[in-house]
Amino acid sequence: MMGCLEFRRLVGAEPARSGPELDAHRRECPACARWQDELRAMDALMQRALAVDAARLALPRARAARSGGSRQRWYALAASAVMAVAVGAVLLTTAPRESVAREVVDHVAHEPGALAASSPVAPAALAGVLDPEGTRLRPGIGDVTFAARCVHQGHVVPHLVLRRPEGVVTVLILRHRAVDRPLRFEENGFAGVVLPAPRGSIAIVGRDHPDLEGVARQVFEAVDWGNAVPVAG
Own/partner pairs for 125-129, CB < 8 Å, 24+ apart? Predict the structure, then answer.
């Protein structure tokens, strides 16, 4: 069965995409179905804005002379208005995503001690960090060497550091911040991925990982989200 991460990776690259596995996941996951519907609506808006027929904007010279060019100006204004709506909608969806990336990198950079920790965290301490969020971490994902409930942008969030064969990664569970699709970023020497989660999002950040997206997928699937209520991306 296809998971949410793989569904959103495929659909994020091609909103109109469909197929047996994708359609089956849509039926099982209303949050992902709603997310794809929103992407498709945005895609349709952009296509309508870009498909304004230039021929309709250029009236024959004789007709333009008789009308004083008023209709031509009206069509141009209408096309500009449609494009402005489309561009505005794109900015509204991308600007918050860029903000999330900056917030995550700033938080990781300002807690260097978390990355330096090397001793595994006791299971009870890890549960104390994750249980209030209604989540837990399945075994086998790596050693958790740091776990704390940190204040991040005015919200308390679980902050974990995992030591894996590929290297160290930081995980922030951001239940207060929703993103509409996976966000990949590189900033200040860090590389990261912010993924839509059943509620809010989850950020995975590391350095010099050849396959950070693969690691992020494993981390995402290792989180048991409990009975989290999905929210719209």
Answer: 126/160, 129/158, 129/159, 129/160
Contact (CB, 8 A) for 215 and 207: no
- Residue 39: how many CA atoms within 13 Å on its side-chain side? 22
Task: Identify whether the C-beta of residue 39 lies closer than 8 Å to the C-beta of residue 15.
Answer: yes
Tokens of 66: 């008789």
Hey, what are 65's tokens?
């002379």
Fold of 105-224: Protein Transport Mog1p; Chain A (3.40.1000)
* Angstrom distances, CA of residue 16 to CA of 69, 178, 224: 39, 22, 29
User: Taking residues 158-185, what's their average pLDDT?
Assistant: 89
The mean pLDDT of 62-66, rounded to a whole number, is: 52
Ordered alpha helix ranges (H), the chain = 4-13, 20-28, 30-50, 54-57, 61-67, 70-109, 112-116, 123-130, 212-222
pLDDT in tens, 129-167: 999 989 999 988 999 999 999 888 788 899 999 998 888
d(CA 23, CA 35): 13
Query: Where do the domains of the chain lie?
Result: 4-99, 105-224
Q: Dmax over Cα atoms in the chain, in whole Å? A: 83
Question: Is 11 in contact with 25 (CB distance < 8 Å)?
Answer: no
Start-to-end CA span in the chain (Å): 22
The C-alpha atoms of residue 221 and residue 217 are separated, in whole angstroms, by 6
Tell me the whole-structure pTM to 2 decimals: 0.57
